[in-house]
Design goal:
322 residues; alpha/beta; Rossmann fold; 14 strands
């Protein structure tokens, strides 16, 4: 078996260190810098010849910088004779641009997938892609992981009673249904109308019994938090006792933090796929680490064993310290 090598760019080095600790391997020394004009500069300080290399790099904001770092790192590894380059992308930017919604629009998610492959990525490990069809955009093997069981484990250990899992929109019903099954709880759905992305949606109906229950809103991404907060306010008006929420990817852009701070959401549970700077770490936000999940997946890919078996495995939910 070729020796495993793990490296990272500047997107989420803290997560990379946690993954390295679980794998009991050192992070390769990499210099990632910028020329005065903003161009990305990368230098590998360790030999990777004949090694099985894994690049942990979410393409989170600033998306363009982190995406280009990933592409340049993949190219450097390929040119340095790595035996295989696997991109470990906990958060895949541009995932919401996965189809044409009008004339003369690009499918940018497919473009980004093509760029990764052309840069030298030979295998992809991704976590909770926004849409299932994204897996078909890559002309290389892709292993798709989910943080569902980690987040479910967190709520199971809270011992909440009378829980109902709520999807904040019709598009997330499958995700919420799987989460409800993991908790053994009923499902409710909020039907909404939104004319364009990042516009606060108008709630039309709440489908399911929520009165006098503890609601857990489930989503994959919280961006500006408008939809999530509007859904929480609607549930309160419908008579729920408490509102919790969870998501895998806390983008939290624009007015998100202020909206959450003034919302009826008692607790928002997220993962560390995207690092949260101090100004976004509200007291009501809890961060659960996906490091163990990613480390187990990397070890399985390296050993050429099944990754799909991780889908239903329960890993202890480990909180990340603020």
């Amino acid at each position: 078996m070729k020796p495993l090598a793990l490296l990272t760019g500047t997107a989420n080095p803290a997560l990379a260190r946690r993954v390295a600790a679980y794998l009991d391997v050192p992070l390769l020394e990499v210099v990632v810098g910028r020329y005065p004009d903003g161009e990305v500069e990368v230098q590998l300080l360790d030999s990777v010849r004949g090694r099985d290399c894994f690049v942990l790099q979410p393409t989170c904001p600033p998306v363009h910088d982190h995406l280009l770092e990933l592409l340049v790192l993949a190219d450097a590894l390929q040119r340095a004779s790595a035996v295989r380059v696997t991109a470990v992308v906990p958060y895949f930017g541009y995932a919401r641009q996965d189809r044409k919604t009008g004339p003369r629009e690009p499918v940018t998610a497919k473009l980004v997938a093509n760029l990764m492959v052309r840069a030298g990525v030979q295998h992809l490990l991704a976590l909770d892609l926004h849409a299932g069809q994204l897996s078909g955009f890559f002309d290389i093997p892709l292993d798709h992981l989910s943080a569902r069981m980690l987040l479910a484990d967190y709520f199971l250990h809270k011992g909440l009673s009378g829980v109902v899992v709520v999807s904040p929109d019709v598009g997330g019903v499958r995700r919420a249904r799987e989460f409800a099954q993991a908790l053994g709880a009923p499902l409710a759905i909020i039907d909404k109308r939104r004319d364009r992305p990042n516009q606060v949606a108008e709630v039309v109906h709440v489908i399911g019994k929520v009165y006098r229950r503890t609601a857990i809103l489930v989503d994959d991404i919280v961006d500006t938090a408008g939809t999530l907060v509007r859904a929480a306010e609607t549930l309160v008006r419908r008579g729920v006792r408490e509102v919790y929420a969870c998501c895998t990817h806390p983008v939290l852009s624009g007015p998100a933090v202020e909206r959450l701070a003034h919302s009826p959401i008692r607790e928002l549970v997220v993962t560390d796929t995207i690092p949260l700077p101090p100004e976004k770490r509200l007291e009501r936000i809890r961060v659960v680490s996906v490091a163990r999940l990613l480390a187990d997946a990397i070890a399985r890919v390296h050993a050429h064993s099944s990754v799909s078996e991780l889908a239903e495995e329960r890993l202890a939910a480990e909180l990340v310290e603020s």
